[in-house]
Amino acid sequence: MSRRLFHRFHRVAVFLFILFIVVPFIPLLLWSVSAGWRWPHVLPESFSLRAWTYLFSPSSGLWESMGVSLQVAIVVTLINLLIAVPAANALARYRFWGKRGVEALMYAPLVVPPYVAIMGLHLTFIRWNVTETVAGVVLAHLVPTLPYMLRPLVISYRTLGFQWEDQARMLGASAWARFRHVVLPHLLPGIAAGVGLSLLVSLSEYLLTLLIGGGLIRTFPLLLFPFLNGGDPAIGAALSLVFAGMTAGLLITTEWLLRRCYGDSHRTQPF
Amino acid sequence: MWQRSKPYLLIAPATGAMLLLFVGGLWEGVLQSLGYRPLVGQSRLTLQFYETLLSSADFWRSLGLTLRVSILSTLAGGVLGLMISVCLVMLAGAGPFKHSRFWRHVFQLPLLIPHFVAAYLAVVMMIQTGWIPRLMFALGFLDQPADFPVLVQDRFGWGIVLTYAWKEAPFIAWMLYPVLYRTQEKWWEVARVFGSGRWAYFREILLPLLLPAWMTASFIVFAFTFSAFEVPYLLGVTYPQMLPVWSFEMYTGGDLTKRPAALAVNVLLAGMAVFFGWLAHRTGRRFGLLEGGRWE
Fold it and tell me: pLDDT digit string (tens) for B110-123?
């Protein structure tokens, strides 16, 4: 194959893959602004902002569900951060008996689906009086999110030896000062990645919220689901777009914060 | 003493949470699947729910469908993901896609949206009156909606497979990207000096470097598609159902006597997930795939 032909082939391949990714969003956009769209029209016959005005009106429940979703996701992520930072420290920098077992336990929810555990806990949650409460949903969300918080933090801790902290100790820094000024700046990329992933996983969670929240804790996915399952397609499409925009905004903000902290050369990996 | 117990203190909160919520939940699930219900005075353990399950044709059909869908999804996602990762590396270089950060974000799109939105995209695109049939009609390939194959809510599970392929291919690509990114232009030049063609370079140099990450990513996708609930719930048919959906319907169906059977399905599902994980780990170790490629 000649070099030029090969490069043309490359371009076509990249273009096709971009199409493959982007094209499904086009009918979604069109549905969200359509007023009537019968077979076999490729474009809607008439357009209206009905779905969007409905969504942003108080009766749609969009703002409440977004509030509940964010409340759950933020509390889950804060708890994860508090328990994962010390755990990542131990897993990355210490040798101790039982380490392999702890590692297996922490990453197990990536292999064994979390709803298996949460369905088993359902009766216990009823006994604890946490079903149909935000607290119960937060507890349930900890299971699928913790591994995603832990993993980037472990990677960050691995590249931090003990020497810097020893040096700071010799200079008279207290334990808190050592953590604040030596460890924390080093961990920031890991924290940003972990926080982003934890928020993303919690915001996207449907089944656990339904099982423990009993339909009363209406997070964003719970609001959206009935529309996907045969409801008004215009509203379903608009809600899906709001969701995609929210998560994309989250990721872009995280990346922007990282770039501001570390300059353009710093690359973050999703894992 | 402090030095020896310090790591245990550090891991205690996270381990405690996981022991309570995850291991505790699994344990209670196993007990309930064995018919342990102290609230109604039933505290004898029995294997009857497993026996009924394993001797019912429904279970085996569900398992067959679940395996078929997850294997096909993993294969499709794996192959497409490999191709997309190569595209991503090209986007990082020069060429027609110079504003590469924007285009790289485009490839991240499927990672950002939850699975149920991806399932909805599949519906909008591929039902018999969806956008693809409409485009095909406009181009004259189709006379009426019924001529388009049933790809959503079909008995084979094509809709689920296609959704997973679209959603997981970029995930696999992002797992492979760091590996490909480390390969250098120089290597290709050296390979050419030794008379290697493009295909030989790909087969002898790139593929062995990519395999470990590719195996890991594919396994994560397989484990996920094997046990995930949302996409088959939205895109599946009422019979046969994939195992997670079947278990959910039995659990929430209102008939409390079916709950032990639902939990038994869960336990079997979890057991198989662990078995596949162990198998992947063992196979990986035997072929030296898990140590990571040799870079020097």
Answer: 888 889 999 999 99
Domain assignment of residue B274, yes or no: yes
| Domain span at B29 | 1-46
- Give A-chain residues touching B38 at CB under 8 angstroms: none
**Class of residue A59 by CB neighbours under 10 A (exposed 0-12, middle 13-18, buried 19+):** exposed
Residues B24, B140, single domain; the answer is no
Listed residue (A107, A83, A117, A141) closest to B24, CA to CA = A117
Among A40, A102, A142, beta carbon nearest to B134 = A40
Say if residue B240 is preceded by a cis peptide, omega within 30 of 0.
Answer: yes
Domain ranges of chain A: 3-48, 60-262
Best CA proximity match to B224, nearest among A78, A70, A148: A148
The strand pairing partners of B276, in sequence order, are none
Architecture of domain A60-262 in this structure: Orthogonal Bundle (1.10)
Q: ipTM beyond 0.95? A: no
- CB-closest option in B11, B90, B263 to A87: B11
Chain A contact set for B84 (CB, 8 A):
17
> Tokens 């087969």, residue?
B203
